[in-house]
Amino acid sequence: MLTDPIADFLTRVRNANIVSKDKVEIPSSILKEAVAAVLGREGFIRRYRVITRGKRKVLQIYLKRTPEGERVITHLERASKPGRRMYIKKDEIPRVLNGIGICVLSTPKGVLSGEEALKMQVGGEVLCYVW
User: Is residue 1 over pLDDT 70?
Assistant: First the structure.
C-alpha cells in the first residue's frame, strides 16, 4: 500500500524523464489523471491516456522533448505531503520561476494549475511544482 500516491506518480515521471524514456506507465486514479491533464494543458507532456489491463487501469504518460532533444520537465517537486499539507488562499498562489513553471493545485473546482486557479479565484492544496 502506498501512503502517498502523488509522490509515487511524480517520482515515476521524474525517473522516466531522467533516463530519456518516451513514455511511463503508472497505476491510474482520478487524481493522477487530473494532474496529468494539467501537465498536458500546460505543455509539459505530449499526451496521456488511460488503458485497461485486466481489471486494472494504467495511466500512460508520453513525455515531451524539445526539438534539440532536451527535457521539457527539468524539475518536479512534491509540495503538500501526508504529514504536512499546504493550503493556500486565492491571493497567495505562487508564481513559479516568474511564470516559466507551474504549481498544481487541488481546488473545489478540480485540479488546476496556479494560473487557472488565479483566473477562477480559488485556492486549495498545493500538490506539486513543475518547471
Answer: no
Which string of DSSP letters, residue by residue, matches 36-52? Answer: HHHHHHTTSEEEEEEEE
Task: Please count the CA atoms within 13 angstroms of the CA of 92 that sit on its side-chain side.
Answer: 9
Rounded Cα gap, residues 89 and 87, in angstroms = 7
CA 130 from centre of chain: 7
- What Å distances lie between residue 83 and 18, 44, 107, 115, CA to CA? 27, 28, 19, 26
Q: Judge whether residue 39 has pLDDT over 70.
A: yes
Provide the grid cell at 9: 506518480
* The Cα angle at residue 64 between residues 117 and 99, in degrees rounded to 5: 35
pTM for the whole structure: 0.95
- Residue 118 and residue 99: Cα distance in Å, rounded? 13
